[in-house]
Amino acid sequence: MTLESVAGLYNYWVVIFLMMTGFYIVLARKNLIKSVIGLNIFQTSVFLLYITMGKVEGGTAPIVPPAIAAAQAHAAHGSDAGHAATPHVEGAHEVAHAALQHGGELASTTTEIIYSNPLPSVLMLTAIVVGIATTALALALVVRIREDYGTVDEERILELDRGE
Amino acid sequence: MIDAIFAHLPILLIVMPLVAAPCCVLTGNGRAAYALALVVSLLTFACSITLLEETLVHGVVRYELGDWSPPYGIEYRVDIFSGFVMSFVSGIGAIVLVYAPLSVRDEISESKHYLFYATYLLCMTGLLGMCVTGDLFNVFVFLEISSLSSYALISLGRTRRAPLAAFQYLILGSIGATFILIGIGLLYQMTGTLNMGDIAARVPHEHGPRTVLVAFAFLTVGLCVKMAVFPLHTWLPNAYTYAPSVVTCFIAATATKVSVYAFVRIIFEIITPGFAFDVLPLDTELMLFSLVGIFIASIAAIYQDNVKRLLAYSSVAQIGYMLLGISMATPTGLSAGIVHMFNHALIKGGLFMVAGCFALRLGSVQLSDWKGAGRTMPLTSLAWAIGGLGLIGVPLTAGFISKWLLLTSAFEAGRWPVAALMLLSSLLAVVYIWRVVETLFFAEPSEAAANATEAPLRMLIPTYVLIGATLVFGVWTSYSAGIARQAAIALLGGTP
């Protein structure tokens, strides 16, 4: 493993560092709130892991570029309908014409555009929602524990339980 | 019309409880919410039975969500194995709800009843969803739906220890779920798909990159936390002990079983037994952990004075039996593991229901308060005795069927030490069941027990339905062991 490959994978190192940090906080903590924070860091590292794997080198956001969208609109409406169209479509036409002026590059750009993979990001939206629900529930439980025991220190709580 | 409904059964199974849950919240009334939850859970049970029937006659049922063909859309896929698991999960869900109202009124404050039933339905949605889905990420989502709602359910317990137990479960459960998420991510990275069938076809096994190995490791450890395999079981005793009785009945009977289901799916369909058991030593490890778990948890159960905690430790031991069967990876062993999921769900559900009856009448689940209750509550105590016999594995009970299959498979594989240890461990079950029976029938009645009356029929009848089922399925096995065998053969790649 050369230095280059180690440095090239830097985002994975960030993921591993965050993961271990979060995991350590969860295991080593004695304060309930801190363990929730640790859990959050741990989950965040997984979000980064997924987003990293969705990135394609040189890829752009998986949204159809305006030039191509306009060209399609152009093809759909035909040149006659274009004159009567709304200003929005009119504007789009100009973009399309501008693109065409570059010596018919449009056809080649359509095939050459590289997109990033959107699916991991979408999955992470779900995972973030799950993470929020978990955090909210955990904090609600901590509030109840605090009301009943008067402390959020786990050792103190266990002591109180033993004393019963 | 009927045909149209029939074609959408797999999604109805999920959508009905999922939609009914917010409706329960909207009613804002305990009784209305209960009626809705009961109707929906009975309908869900009918759906799963129909689906199981369908898979038995016509084979795998596939359903494309929103008409998007896989892999673009999510596919729901019901085969014999998932049909079997979802049938007993929804069945027990319905029976526990029939049993619930009196116990819920006793243990949960009136203002929270409608929320309780809503959360209960959500938990059921998650568990059934894990069975029905054919998409790996969807498994994670449903797992989290069921887990989050079970944390909330556990925290409803009467004592102040309930929120703490729920919190400890939440921390461990979330770590487990996040491990599963990492595993799924790495598998996606290797295969570019989330559909379980496609992953299974594409994932490189032998000489594959290390990523696959790491993914398997994360998935295995994550699911072991959820299954409460020894030594990752530490969340379970507290959670089962301090949760309200009804919640314990439902979760103990179903939640860990569904995780075992997901584990079996992943091992046998994605990791493949050839890689997991031949290349990797997962079978030896599972066998070791389950045997050690069976002994330590059973011995711990003997020393408990709280009956719910005693049953919780016994649950950890019983998970060991299931994994023991799975680790054999032969048709007999695997079907023993699968049928024990079902039998144990019946037995443990029934026993926790008995504990709930005593909790209602005696106000306690401490063994010392149960002294002599057999004289004033003979029917409830008898239910404990019958259920206990099932847990030990006495012939003519369901527990015997699974232990017999396990023993057979151990002998087939020539592992006689495993068989000997299993028999020995059953003796430990005799000890802890007998301790309770002795207290119930032969001790001088405590004051509370002497003044107690028999549990109400509304709770006794569902209890006896489950306890009776353990006797029925101990004799008539074509719908338990028979289906489990078909499922096992299908999982091992043969034709039933």
UniProtKB/TrEMBL annotation, chain A:
This is Cation:proton antiporter subunit C. It is a multi-pass membrane protein. It comes from Aporhodopirellula aestuarii. Keywords: Cell membrane, Membrane, Transmembrane, Transmembrane helix. PANTHER family: ANTIPORTER SUBUNIT MNHC2-RELATED. It comes from the Bacteria. Its main location: membrane. Belongs to the CPA3 antiporters (TC 2.A.63) subunit C family. Gene3D superfamilies: 1.10.287.3510. It is found in: Cell membrane. The chain crosses the membrane at residues 12-28, 35-53, 122-143.
Automatic annotation (TrEMBL), chain B:
It is found in: Cell membrane; Membrane. Belongs to the CPA3 antiporters (TC 2.A.63) subunit D family. It holds the Pfam family Proton_antipo_M. PANTHER family: NA(+)_H(+) ANTIPORTER SUBUNIT D1, NADH DEHYDROGENASE. Keywords: Cell membrane, Membrane, Transmembrane, Transmembrane helix. Residues 134-428 form the NADH:quinone oxidoreductase/Mrp antiporter transmembrane domain. This is Monovalent cation/H+ antiporter subunit D family protein. The chain crosses the membrane at residues 6-26, 33-52, 80-102, 114-130, 136-157, 169-191, 211-232, 286-304, 310-329, 341-362, 382-406, 418-437, 457-476. It comes from the Bacteria. It is a multi-pass membrane protein.
